[in-house]
Amino acid sequence: MPVAVATDSTAYLPADVVASYGIEVVPLYVVLAGHSGREGAEITPGDVARALTTRGQQVSTSRPTPGDFVAAYRRRLAEGADRVVSIHLSAELSSTCDAARLAAAQVGEHVVTVLDSRSAAMGTGFAVLAAARCAAEGGDADEVAAVAARTAARTRTFFVVDTLEHLRRGGRIGSAASLLGTALAVKPVLHVADGQVVPLERVRTSARALARLVQRAAEAAGGPGASLAVHHLAAPDRASKLAAELQRAVPGVRELFVSELGAAIGAHVGPGAVGVVVTPAEVGDRG
Question: Which keywords does this chain's UniProt record carry (predicted)?
Fold first, then answer.
């Protein structure tokens, strides 16, 4: 029984990977200068970066509608899938997963399985990719959902932002935690824990923050066979440098993706943000 894999646009999987595995991507909406558009198709990361650096400009995001998901699920079923496994960013950060569950109830929960990755960006994306690979190998819906859940559970996400103000405004981090980034000009290193954005440590400079990202990623990899992703918003040079340092620090990397954050996540982290996502190899799969 063929299984289709779906996700939302915040997974930020490379376009060639999406095309190769036939992954269904349902876009979030980004509101910019009073105009609402679909992430990626109508509003780009560059649009968001420019808006966030313009005084008075505000950027907000909203989930796909349940109808968007219903249309996507029914399209894949009409194309021949028997089941759909739909994997999304943390419900602690967005109501996207709720919309997917409403759609699943309408289409049929015996047909559509919805999974909360408890993560974001490639923290979700690696779970989606693992699910798609399992489906391509003939796995049934239960197996596809299980491998996605296992992958999401062992994936770690670390990032640094130039300012916590965008996260605070968007309600993605508490006002008390936002003070971490203002006192004595410290640079907070953050991570995603239990589906939430949480401060991890404080360092004095941007260079030290990037060095800590590399150290944290190497520790999280735990050995050869890890998959890595580097994300950024309007900081390609910092992202390239981070990727090169990760290649040196982490042995036997299975794959490394570098991509710019899309509008929906970029609106909350702001220009200059860089991060790394680490999925260690499963025990028994390490070289």
Answer: Lipid-binding
Cβ atoms < 10 Å from Cβ of 250: 22
Are 163 and 242 within one domain? yes
Strand partners, 189: 160, 201
DSSP string covering 12-34, please?
---HHHHHHHT-EEEPPEEEETT
Domain count across the chain: 2
Is 284 among the domain residues? no
- Residue from 124, 153, 117 nearest 13 by CA: 124
Q: Do the strands 29-32 and 35-38 form a parallel or antiparallel pair, or are they unpaired? A: antiparallel
C-alpha–C-alpha distance, residues 190 and 274, integer Å: 11
For residue 61, give both structure tokens. Answer: 């995001």
Q: Same domain for 20 and 139?
A: yes
- What is the reported pTM? 0.90
Among 41-45, 98-102, 171-175, 258-262, the least confident range: 171-175
* 42 belongs to a structural domain: no
For residue 50, tell me if it sits in a domain.
Answer: no
Q: Tell me the per-residue pLDDT of 123-170, one tens digit each, with 9 for 90 and over.
A: 999 999 999 999 999 999 999 999 999 999 999 999 888 766 655 665
How far apart (Å, rounded) are the C-alpha atoms in residues 12 and 120? 9
